[in-house]
Design a protein that fits this description.
The chain is mainly alpha-helical. The chain is 57% helix and 0% strand. It is built from four helices and no strands. Helix 1 (5-16) packs across helix 3 (31-43), helix 2 packs parallel to helix 4 and helix 3 (31-43) packs antiparallel against helix 4 (48-61).
């Protein structure tokens, strides 16, 4: 396990960027939780595709959700 923040962020983005993870976990999250998670993934270097996958998996499962837009400034990362 890494104690370096940059390494930990890279590992976080890699693990939480899996489509299956988004499909399983996003439906259980509230809008504010998905927004914070997507912001953290973006800051950790996740790709725009990863962010969109999380937002889409959440929005489809939450009939009260008004939708979210992919945050700008997401830079593609080779690890995600």
């Amino acid at each position: 396990m890494s104690t370096n923040v940059a390494d930990a962020a890279t590992q976080f983005a890699a693990v939480w960027s899996l489509q299956e993870t988004a499909d399983e976990a996003a439906p259980a999250l509230h809008c504010v939780e998905i927004d914070v998670l997507v912001d953290l993934l973006r800051a950790a270097g996740a790709t725009t595709t990863t962010l969109t996958n999380w937002l889409d998996a959440h929005t489809v499962s939450d009939p009260e959700c008004q939708g979210h837009s992919t945050p700008t400034g997401a830079e593609p990362s080779p690890s995600t």
